[in-house]
Every structure is written in C-alpha cells, then in structure tokens.
Amino acid sequence: MNSWYHSWRAAIRIARRDAWRSKGRSFLVLAMIALPILGVSAADLTLRSAELSTEQGLERTLGAADARLTDPGLGGVPIKQTPDGTNYTPVGDFDGKPWPEGKTDIGKALPAGAKSLTDSVGSGKLRTTHGLLNTEIRELKSSDPMAKGIMVVAGGRLPQKSNEVAATTHFLESSGLKVGSKLTARGLDREYTIVGSYELPDALKTDQVNALPGALLAPLDQALEKAGLPGTEPSTTHLVTVSGGFTWNMVKQTNTKGVTVTSRAVALDPPAKADVPIYQEEGWGTFEDSTAAKAAALAAVGTVVGLAMLEICLLAGPAFAVGARRSRRQLGLVGANGGDRRHIRAIVLAGGLVIGFAAAVVGTVLGLLLTFALQPVLEDYMGKRFGSFDVRPLELLGIGLLAVFTGLMAAIVPAITSSRQSVLASLTGRRGVRKSSRVLPVIGLIAVLLGAAIALYGSMMTDQFIVVAGGSAIAELGVVALTPALVGLFGRTGRILPLSPRLALRDAVRNRGRTAPAVAAVLAAVAGTVAVATYTASQDAQGKADYEARLPYGAVSVMLDEAGGRDVPSVRATVQKLLPIDVRADVDRISVGKSTCSMYSGGEGCGRYEIVVPKANQCPLWMTDPAHPNEDPSEKFSKEQRRKLAKDWRCKEVSGSSYLDSGVAIADAKLLKVLEINDPAAEKALAAGQIVSFDKRNLDAQGKINIRLVTDPKKADEAAEKGKEAPGAIKSFTAHQVSGLPNTYGVAMIVPPAAAKAAGVTTVPFGAYYSTDKMPSSAQRQRLDGELDKTGSDINLHVEEGYTSENSIVLLALTVFAGLITIGAAGIATGLAQADAEADLKTLAAVGAPPRVRRTLSGFQCGVVAAMGVLLGSAAGVLPAVGLRLTEKREQMKFYRQALDQGFSSVDSVPYVPIIVPWETLAALLVAVPVGAALLAALVTRSRGALSRREAT
After folding, report:
1. How wide is the angle at C-alpha 464 spanned by C-alphas 458 and 469, nearest 5°?
2. What Å distances lie between residue 14 and 21, 334, 411, CA to CA?
3. What residue ranges in 623-701 does DSSP mark as E strands?
4. CB of 344 within 8 A of CB of 330?
5. Alpha helices (H) in 624-722, listed in sequence order
C-alpha cells in the first residue's frame, strides 16, 4: 500500500509538472472537459434554485393566509377535489343530464370564526404613454398582513386610498409610466395615482395594477356597460385565516357547498389516498410516470451523457497522446531507472487525473459564479424569482467526479500505448511497428449490424423512438470501433495522389493510433449533425407539403371582435395606410342579441346564428338520431361504409380556415378579387343582392340558404341535447352556387350587406381582407404592429407569406458546430503527426525540399483527418434520421387508417412523410470543412524548422 501511494504521488507530481510546461495543450483539454461541466453545474444550480419548497410556493399563492377558497362555477352543487384543489368534479352522475353551471356565494361557505380577504381579478384597457394596454386589474388589500408575500414591493408603497394603485414593474416598463404618474382606464373618467411598484414572484412578466377592493373594477364595469362595451369579467377568490389551520375535514365540508379550497395545512401534510373521495372514483388517482417510462427516460439521459463523454474522450485522447509522445524520453528514463509498465501507465493516467480534477474545479466554480452573476437574467427569462440560491454539494460533487472520470478515460489508450514501448525505443526515439488489433474491427462490425437491425426493427415494428435512437447509437459506436480498419482502407487511394497529400495519407494510415481517435471524434460530431439536419430537412419538406395557406400569397387580413366593432373602421384605415394595399374588402359579421357581444360570447343578452342545412344534404355520419341524441351516429355504420361515406360530397369539409363564424362573410364583390376567385356570375349575383355560396350543402331544393337566429343559446343547447331543432327565427336568402371547387380560404359564403339589411339581420364591423401590390416589408410590418398595439385591442392580423421554414438557422448552427469539432480534432491529430514526423521533416529540409512542403504537408495531414471523419460521419448520420422518419410514417399511416375507419372526411390523402437529404449542409461538411481545416493548419504552421542532426534510428 505504501509503495502504491508513493508511486502515484510521484506520478501526479510529474503529470502536474508536464501539464504546467505544456500550457497550451493542457488548456485545450481542460476547456474541452470543463465547458460541459460548467454547463451541467449551472443547469443544476438553476433548476434547483428555481424549484420552490412547499412553504415558498404557498407564500406566493396564499401569502400568510391558511387557505384560498375559489368558486369553480358549478352552481353550488357538492364537489370532490384533489388535495391541492387543481382537479375537482361534481358529486353525482350527470350522464345524459345538463352539466351544472353557475356562480356560488363563497361567503356562505366560510367556516365559523374565519377571517377573509377578497382577491378579485379582471382585465381592462389602461391608457399608457404609447396608447392602450390590455392589463390585468386586481383588487386586493395587499397591505393586509394576510396578503404578505403575494406581492413584493419594488418601490414606493402599496395603495391605501381608493384613488391609488400600485403596478407591476413589467407594466411600468411596458407602459412608459412611473411611480407618481396618473393612470386612467378607457371608458372611465376617473384618475388614479400610481403610488408604488411591485413584483409577482411567480409571474414577473405580468402586466397588472392593484387597487383596493371596489375602487376600480366596479366603477369601470359600470362605465363600460353604460358605453355598451364589454366588462372586465372579474373573478373573486377569498383568502381565509382560521384558528388551528384549514384541515382536510374542513376542506371536504367546504366542498359540500360547491367551493374548492387550496389549504396550507393540507399541502404541508397531505391526507392518505384512501381519505380522498375523488381518488375512490374510477378514472381518478395520483398520476405519475410508469416504471417503463422512467427507465426509458433514464436510458435516454444515459445515452446522451455517454455519447458526450465519448466525444470528449475521442477529442482529448489524442492530446494526451501528444503529451506522451513528446515525453517519451522521460518515460524511457523512468523505465531505465527501474520503473515498470504500471508506473509509466500511472504517469500518463495521472495526466488525465490532474486535468480532469482541474476541469472539475474550474467548471464547477465557474458554473457557480456564472449562475450567481446571471441570476437576474435567468429569473427574467423564466419569468419567476428563485426560491433561494440552492447549492447541493453532493450533486456538484457527482458532476465534478464525471469530469475526473472523463479525464481518466481519455488518457487510458495513450497510457496503454506508452507502457508497451520498450525502454530502448523510448530513449532513442524509435517508433517501432505495431500491428492493429483484429478483434476490434470484428466487434465494430457486429455492433454496426446489431445497431442497424435494432433501428430497423424500431422503425418498422414499434412506435418507440427510443428503440431507434438506441439502435442508432450502437451502430455509431460500431463505426467508431471500425475506424482504424476504415482508415486503412483509405490508404489504398494514396497511389493516385500528389506527393504532399500522399505522404499525409500514408502517415495517417501508418499511425492509426493517433489518427483513429481524431477521425472517430469528427465522425461522432458529423454523424449527429447529419442526423439532425436530415431529420429537420425532411420535416421541412413535409411541413411545406402540408401547409395550408389562409390567404393568397401576399394578401392580408385583419379581424377585431370587440365592442361591437367600434374600433374596426380605424384599424381598417391604419392597415390600408401603412401597407402597399391594392384592393380592400371590408367584412362584417352577423350579430344576434346585444351589438357589443363578441362572436362566441355566451353572456347575458348574447345569441348566435346557425346555417340550416337541409336533411337531404346532411352527412349521415353526423346526423343525430332524435330518439338517441347521446349516441354517436357513425357507430351504426361499418368501417367499409364509413370509408365510403367519407368520400361523399355531403361529408366533405370546406378547405381552409378563417376567423369567420361558420365561414359567413358580410361583404361585396371586392372580397372575390382579394381571394383571387374569377367568377363573373358570382359578381353579378352579389350585385343583385344574392348570397354567393361555395358549399352546396347549404342550399335547399329551392336554391335558397336559411340562417337561424338563436336568441336564447341555453334553450338551443337543451334542444340539441334532445335531438331537436333549436328555436329561433329563420331568415331565407336567394343564393348563387359557384361551380367547381375554388380555394376560398375558409369562406363558405358571401352575403351582400344589402341582402342582410333587407332580411332584418343585424351586422357589425368585423375586419377586412386586402390584396397587396407587393409583399409588405419587415419595416412596414413592424410599423403597423406598433400602431395596432396602441389600440390595446386583441387584433388578429395575418400576412400570407407562404410556408416559411424556421430551421435554416438550426442547420447553419449545426454546420458551424460540426465544423469547429472537425477542425479541433483534425488540429490535435495534426499536432501529434508533427511531433511524430519531426525527424522526417528535418530530413526533407536537409535534402533540399522547398520550405512550402512543410506547410503543405501539415495542411494535408489536417485535411485528410477531417475528410475521413466527415465522410464516415455523413454515412453514419443518415441511419438514425431514416429510422425516425420511418417510425413517424408508421404512426401517421396508423392514424390515417383509423381516421378512414371513423369516416373522417378531412383525411383525404395518404400522409406524405419524405426523407430529404440536406445536400447543402452535406456539401459544406464534405468540401468546405476539410478544405478550411487544411488551409487553417497550413497557415498556422511555420515554413521552416530548426535544422539539426537527425537522431540515430
């Protein structure tokens, strides 16, 4: 034991001295190992710091209260809830019955002796220095001790009077206001003073203002109702404090009154599963990942970590070999003075240990400092504050040990190689000849075949991506093991090359011990790049084929469904003013009930309309049997009948999508021009006051279209549940059916304004469609977005640009990444080659070789390694991408067949799942990267070396 300790101590001292002498090489290896450690340690610190303890989470949601009571909107019927209150269900069986709905008086559900604090949240448009900003309005007496912790004061103070408000820091940044500014809301003539700013620790990017209860929401609602505008739609919860805490029994008692509870006591001490009523019902329970899912996730993480370590070892291994080769005389002296092979191995391994330890320390410390320094940036990115700066020493120690282990693994092969050299060869500088292993290529070939078989099985027989990824990883490792043999095959092409590249190639083949790891490192990086690039390019091609344009190319649409269209005329004019508009087609919508109701509003006084489709034109798959309204009408047909009916014209869906309800547009003939529908008969029909229909299912036998105006949606829903027609007045319109199947981009019919007015149908402005002279520029778009933002309205603006890929930057980044790895690995191999070939270079200089030979030889040595690695990596990287795409094709074909069996008419074509090779990326990797690596190596190599006597061999 004592001998072992002293020998390793000496080895570490020697390794430390060598690392300090060769600072450049040591820094390179240290950086390669430390950078991943820095990233992992920083990620660990960030995730752990962002995780909140139960107490911290409760403080942000409950403050100092014991519970928060919420109305789930079930009309006060008894409910069952999960302990955290996020899931609930009404007590009883509601199959075939109307689902309970309605408000509940939370005040009646408060326990006796409880103290409560109301917390109301609504939304409204507040005036800012830029215009209007849709803002969350909260009414909570935040200065009350019960609310402590919900809001963190950043400046000023919390409101104490009815004319005071506080605002989030994000709102102040967005609005251009500050503490002391006056604040007003659209529709309200009252001013409020901003007296402070605060943060919501769990929602830093929320635009919110806080006022005292009753100070802002109620007056604003009254003003908006008077002006005929939508209200703030507030929701109110109660913070409650009760002596002894809000126990689980109290939660269940409150549930009987139709109110859900988030309790501090229950969160800190959850009840047993048997004591939770909702968990006793079928379909409810505590959900967590299965053992198989956890094992798959663990295997995926292990594979990624293992491949990353392999890449680092392949890159760092040649660097350790360079050090061992340059120190071979020193190692020979160790052997000459009684040291055996294990001592030499220990010295080289100690180099990996020293650099691995240094990388662990540097990476971990930098990770700590970087996370601490960037904490505000990270919190802003995640949108919430850290609970604490959580440093977990054991986890950081494990990450650091990973760096030490990686350093040792990278030094193993150089250590074994160095220990096998004879003392005489080390002292005299002779390299000797060592035959390559015959076992390793066989193992590699078996791994390639096995991995390919697994990947093929995964893509053809299972739906598990992990199987394909695992098989591809095994195959890639097999190619890495085959690298020495493949390098040897490349050597046969040397006879057709000029002098410098021939010397470089033969040198690489004869010294596979240093060439193979560098080639394998390049191979691994390029294989990953090619796999991702192939998969991404294939997805892009599929996305382009599946893309469904919402408008003709270059056309623009703007829709605004607020306040009965009050702001629509100004929005239409703004778009026309700021974009290169050719034709503008104004579009209105049908309004049933109050004109201020939004299109799909279910509020009081709001209705809707329905297209009355004649029974003869209704799809049999969708026709509900009045005697059995709850049954699926498609179930009475066989699979073959459903597939046949899916092709029936009555079951075909209108192509495209739009913001219009049922595709009904109140517009004139200009809309036809914008949609690029050239139909003179349709234009004449619109001029004559007729509806232009693009869906013949809507026409009855007399050629008319009927629209039902439903003024009582609740009764209409009850009638639908019973299989009856909804009550409501029916308006009939003469219609012109367009022949053929033009692309209408989701518009089912165009109703002329005059026809709607004549029929007594109320319409309100909704938006406009535009054709453009040319595609709007980015500057024009930005200016328009800025102007529309000033309205504070939820405007739907769409400019049809066709399919645009978002993956081009990804492909570029992958190419650059692979290029850097390739140049780094090739550079390391070139440095090792120069260390080995110094004697040959001196001889060349002595016999009169031009100075440029040294430089060109160095460049070709680097280029040869890069070219071999890129070529092998490109071939290896296609396998996983093809496997994943085949798996996706199987899944999509499965869904396609199921959709056909169900009679879904929207699925009318076989899924297109192409496999596209990204030739531009491959060209950059196969040509530009090796050439760039060769030129870079040639540029940094000195043309002349010191001429000296060649050592005897």
Report:
1. 65
2. 11, 11, 15
3. 664-666, 691-693
4. no
5. 639-645, 670-674, 680-687, 713-721
Q: Could you tell me if 195 and 156 are in contact, meaning their C-beta atoms sit under 8 angstroms apart?
A: yes
Lowest mean pLDDT, pick from 31-45, 322-336, 397-411, 721-735: 322-336
Instruction: Say how far apart CA 475 and CA 469 lie, in whole Å.
Output: 10
Q: Give me the residues paired with residue 751 across strands.
A: 666
- For residues 876 and 507, give the distance between their C-alpha atoms in angstroms, rounded to a whole number: 25
Q: Which residue has the tokens 């012109």?
A: 736
In degrees, rounded to 5, the angle at the alpha carbon of residue 29 between the alpha carbons of residues 367 and 377 is 20
- Which amino acid, 648? D
d(CA 863, CA 529): 19
Task: Report CA 620 to chain centroid distance, whole Å.
Answer: 41
Cα separation, 432 vs 501, in Å, equals: 23
Is residue 612 within 8 A of residue 730, CB to CB? The reply is yes
CA distances from 673 to 504, 735, 843, 894 (A): 67, 19, 81, 41
| Cα gap 241→116, rounded to integer Å | 6
Look at residue 226 in the predicted model and tell me its pLDDT.
Answer: 81
What φ, ψ does residue 942 adopt, rounded to 5°? -70, 140
| Rounded Cα gap, residues 83 and 68, in angstroms | 13
Do 611 and 795 touch, CB atoms closer than 8 A? Answer: no
Contacts of 208 (CB under 8 A, 6+ apart): 135, 136, 137, 138, 167, 168, 171, 200
The residue count of the chain comes to 953
Q: What sign has the CA pseudo-torsion 477, 481, 482, 483?
A: positive
Q: Which amino acid is at 106?
A: I
Question: 772 CB contacts (<8 Å, ≥6 apart)?
Answer: 554, 555, 556, 579, 580, 581, 582
Q: Which residues contact 55 (CB under 8 A, 6 or more apart)?
A: 268
Mean pLDDT of 379-386: 88
Which residue, chain included where needed, has tokens 């990017």? 205
Report long-range pairs for 739-742 (Cβ below 8 Å, ≥24 apart).
Answer: 741/655, 742/677, 742/679, 742/694
| Terminal Cα distance for the chain, rounded | 40
Burial (CB count within 10 angstroms: exposed 0-12, middle 13-18, buried 19+), residue 591: buried
Lowest mean pLDDT among 8-22, 252-266, 679-693: 8-22
Of 106, 125, 105, 23, residue with least CA distance to 68? 106
User: Which neighbouring-strand residues pair with 260?
Assistant: 70
Structure-block tokens of residue 839: 């004697």
Residue 558 pairs in a beta bridge with 768, 797
Helices 851-902, 512-546: axis angle to 10 degrees equals: 40
The beta strands (E) that lie in 17-131 are given as: 67-70, 79-81, 88-90, 115-127
* Short-list 551, 546, 545, 584, CA closest to 801: 551
- The 8-class DSSP code of residue 949 comes to P
CA dihedral 326, 330, 332, 336 (to 10 degrees): 170
Q: What is the mean pLDDT of the chain?
A: 81
CB-count burial class (<10 Å; 0-12, 13-18, 19+) for 3: exposed
Q: Measuring CA to CA, which residue among 37, 31, 45, 36 is closest to residue 372?
A: 45
Averaged pLDDT for residues 504-517: 73
What H or E segment, with its residue span, contains residue 796?
A: strand 795-799
Classify 300 in phi/psi space as left (phi over 0), alpha (psi -120 to 50) or beta.
Answer: alpha
Q: What is the number of helices (H) and of strands (E) in the chain?
A: 28, 22
**Amino acid letter, residue 90:** P
39: left (phi over 0), alpha (psi -120 to 50) or beta: alpha
Q: Is residue 797 a contact partner of residue 557, using CB atoms and an 8 Å limit?
A: yes
Please give the single-letter amino acid code of residue 866.
A
Percentage, residues of the chain above pLDDT 90: 25
Structure tokens at 75: 């009309």
The DSSP 8-state label assigned to residue 374 in this structure reads T
